[in-house]
Amino acid sequence: MARRALEELRSQRWFASDDMRGFSHRQRTQQMGMRREEFLNKPVVAILNTWSDLSPCHAHLRERAEAVKRGIWQVGGYPVELPALSVGEVMVKPTTMLYRNLLAMEVEEILRSHPVDGAVLLGGCDKSTPGLLMGAISMDIPVIYCPAGPMSNGQWRGQKTGAGTHTKKYWDELRAGNISPQDWVDLESRMTRSIGTCNTMGTASTMTSIVDAMGLTLPGASSIPAADSGHTRMASACGARIVEMIWEDLKPSQIIDARSFRNGLVAYMALGGSTNAAVHLVAMARRAGVPLNLDDMSEMAGKVPVCANLFPSGEYLMEDFYFAGGLLALLKKLESHLEPNALTVNGRNLGENLVGADCWNDDVIRDPSNPVVPLSRGKTLAVLRGNLAPNGAVMKSSAANPRFLKHAGPAIVFDSPAAMNAAIDDPDLDVTEDSVLVLRNAGPVGAPGMPEWGNLPIPKKLLKQGIRDMVRICDGRMSGTHYGTCILHVSPEAAVGGPLGLLKTGDLVELDVEAGRLDMRVDVAELERRRAEWKPTAPVYRRSFAALYQRHVSQADEGCDFDFLSAPGPVAEPAIY
Ligand code: FES
Ligand code: MG
């Protein structure tokens, strides 16, 4: 690959000029104890670090940044660590999704306003991957994604426990009276035993694996457990490689195209990945100027069955997946679906990166001829449309009870989580397992931020009868670690006048996943009457980021990006005077 001249590096505009500003930039760098030889005439590499004390998934990223720096120094770069918003899934309320676009904006502006030639992006917890990459795609300077890596396997009383998946499972068992309050306390310290992202195929591993398949990480990096020494070596290798990428001027726009998205979708479906990815991928694609919609995803889901035997669709954890050969072994088994010529950050194409990718455990990483969930039984992503969701809704039918995939039942509608929580365990609630539980005003505008409220709790009286799944509908999202017959991302959402807002308790709802239908059986005249009476119930924020968000966010089927950010880049370079 051709090597750029030093003068072409954007950092040279700051450091090489012999005017007063250039003096200040050099002077102030020396103020930090750097010798001129240490930073002048070198590529300057940003390490965008989403570490925080409230993000357990990223707890090790300060140390990993040191490894990245080591790699950068060794090949003649100058590393600068820059903190970026940490969108840790567990602690950030009401939802990290409210802040994904804020992180994306921050990344774009940090990279734009500073003297950096490229960046290593350190993240991994759900929204951090799309947030970091959306900003980087728009900025379009060389970047490499360094995923935080999944936490180590968990066990409790001889049973595998996966983050998120088993929290939900044992919560239901506690409410059903099958485990004791003391068991529940014990679980607290047993379920998540190391640093790193969720060890199930939740949104974190879904997104890091997808961007790995898209060529934005070092090959296979997404599968390396956070606590493995190989993870530190991978971080160092990211540092060494980004310096070369800067000289080669290998930018996201050369890596991301329709082929790389296709490869990402193959990984997504084969992993049984999170429904959340359906939102993030549309947002990323729009920023890159690549056409991609929900139907493209469901089409791929109809071709590639779930082959990774991982919770919540299967029964293993990410460490098992890594030992079985990880993402590269999975992709190798799906080679016929892939675009082998798609370029990746290591300068080689995906096909070359898959040479020699072996699978060491055919139960963890299944052959497509022996999938975890056959296509006839369920897909990673099904798209539904009808008079309840004209622009689409999604569900992971592979993680749903097959009995409900064609279903009709009366709706029980909640307008808020508070209303739901007040009623759901009431012994007098008129509910059976055939009821359809609905939570609305949980969309991008309504909540705002489209929280993960879509896995509505099963009413306690049904739990006690042994029932663990029901049809649930929401205009919000669901954790990728969860499972059940949950119809999500209903678009348009209730708060902007979507028909979900017109549904009433007792209306018959019909679901037919194979036909891709979601309808309410309410006649047109009655719907018109209800529409005339409809008033938005969601709060409209007058100030704060939430106000900006509500004004500019797009609907779920459009990626929930801001209208003023979703056009393809590149952004203008700042003036330096
Ligand atoms: Fe961070 Fe699951 S909570 S990855
Ligand atoms: Mg999650």
Global morphology: globular
Strand content: 5-15%
Write down the domain tally.
3
- The end-to-end distance, rounded to whole angstroms, is 34 Å
Helix content: 25-40%
Largest beta sheet: strand ordering: 7-8-12-11-10-9-13-14
> Which segments are poorly predicted (pLDDT under 50) over 5 or more consecutive residues?
none
Rg measurement, Å: 24 Å
User: From the helix content, strand content and strand pairing, which structural class follows?
Assistant: alpha/beta
Average residue-wise pLDDT:
96
Q: Count every helix, treating DSSP H or I runs of 4 or more residues as helices.
A: 21
Largest β-sheet summary? 8 strands, mixed
The bound ligands are: FE2/S2 (inorganic) cluster, magnesium ion
Count of distinct strands: 14
Structure description:
The protein has 577 residues and is an alpha/beta fold. It folds into three domains: 43-152 and 194-354, no CATH class; 164-192, no CATH class; 382-533, IlvD/EDD C-terminal domain-like (Glucose Oxidase, domain 1, 3-Layer(bba) Sandwich). Helix content is 35%, strand content 13%. The chain has helices spanning 12-15, 20-31, 36-39, 61-74, 97-113, 128-139, 165-176, 181-190, 203-213, 229-248, 252-255, 258-271, 276-288, 294-301, 318-323, 326-333, 350-353, 417-423, 460-463, 524-533, 544-552, and strands at residues 44-49, 78-83, 118-123, 143-147, 154-156, 159-161, 382-386, 389-395, 406-414, 436-439, 471-474, 486-491, 508-512, 517-520. The chain has an eight-stranded mixed sheet. A four-stranded parallel sheet has the order 2-1-3-4, with helices on both faces. Strands 5-6 form a two-stranded antiparallel ribbon. Helix 9 runs antiparallel to helix 12. The protein is globular, with a radius of gyration of 24 Å. It starts with 11 loop residues before the first helix and ends in a 25-residue tail after the last helix. The mean pLDDT is 96.
